[in-house]
Specification:
about 250 residues, about 30% strand, seven-stranded mixed β-sheet, 6 helices, binds 2-oxoadipic acid, binds magnesium ion, alpha+beta, Fumarylacetoacetate hydrolase, domain 2
Length: about 250
């Protein structure tokens, strides 16, 4: 049985040394609330390293992701500044363990959010929507985990790239999302796969953030969750996502 602090230390070291570890749930039971406590401690370590919290990400908002990972509940993770792949910056694969890319949609908050909001209320709290690629990288061996394990591991958060911000449209339904590796189509999804409506994922983020004490501040990014299964970046040298009406986001892999 390890403590919350021991779990956070171990996961942080795994991330920073690219050495995966076994799942905690193979040898002990712990609660979802304790898993979020581990996640908070992990984030504190990144903040102490000089990387502030700059957003959150939803996980398992599509059936495709739940099936791929064998998990059936939504989760929320936290994004810190070191995770941002800036425009024209390459993704340095050697700093990751077994990274996988996901086609996503990002929102930008225009106001602080202090409690759960409905989809109708949300439009007053966002000023941008964009195509986004999330790179997830589990700190567990073989990308295998329980719901508690993945929450403790900050929901596999490791990097993300966001395209140019677009004005917020009234709806985000029926948008094709095409992810290519080195120009070849790797994943073909649709925004409807994200809780039938990506705004629902943002609403769920406001609920989970308030439940687990995660701040949602002006300017923060919220990733709505992948519309398809995730794909290993392996030896690919470029990853691109094109979302109908929102444009293209891409990065090179070195
Ligand atoms: C957990 C993260 C899931 C998504 O978009 O559904 C996620 C994982 O699959 O390792 O980011
Ligand atoms: Mg994701």
């Amino acid at each position: 049985m390890s403590t919350i602090t021991e779990k956070a230390n171990s996961l942080h070291i795994s991330a920073r040394t690219q050495k995966p570890r076994g799942q905690f749930s193979n040898s002990e039971q712990y609660t979802l609330a304790e898993a979020y406590d581990v996640q908070h401690e992990l984030i504190q370590r990144r903040i102490k390293e000089g990387f502030p919290l700059i957003g959150v990400k939803m996980g398992f908002t599509s059936k495709a992701k739940m099936i791929q990972m064998g998990v059936d509940d939504m989760i929320i993770g936290q994004l810190t500044a070191d995770m941002t792949i800036h425009k024209d910056e390459a993704f340095k694969k050697k700093l990751f363990i077994h990274p996988r890319a996901e086609p996503e949609i990002a929102f930008r908050l225009s106001k602080d959010i202090n409690g759960p909001l409905t989809v109708d209320q949300l439009h007053n709290y966002i000023d941008g929507v964009a195509a986004a690629i999330e790179v997830i990288d589990s700190r567990y061996d073989n990308f295998k985990f329980s719901l508690e394990d993945v929450v403790a591991d900050n929901c596999s958060s490791s990097a993300y790239a966001v395209g140019d911000w677009c004005e917020v449209p009234l709806g985000l339904n029926g948008l094709d999302m095409t992810m290519t590796f080195d120009g070849a189509i790797t994943a073909q999804g649709n925004s409807d796969a994200i809780l039938d409506n990506p705004f629902e994922a943002l609403s769920a983020a406001t609920r989970l953030a308030s439940e687990y004490g995660i701040p949602l501040k002006t300017g923060m990014v919220v990733l709505a969750g992948a519309s398809t299964a995730a794909h290993f970046i392996k030896d690919s040298s470029s990853v691109t996502l094109d979302v109908d009406g929102l444009g293209v986001v891409s990065f090179n892999v070195v």
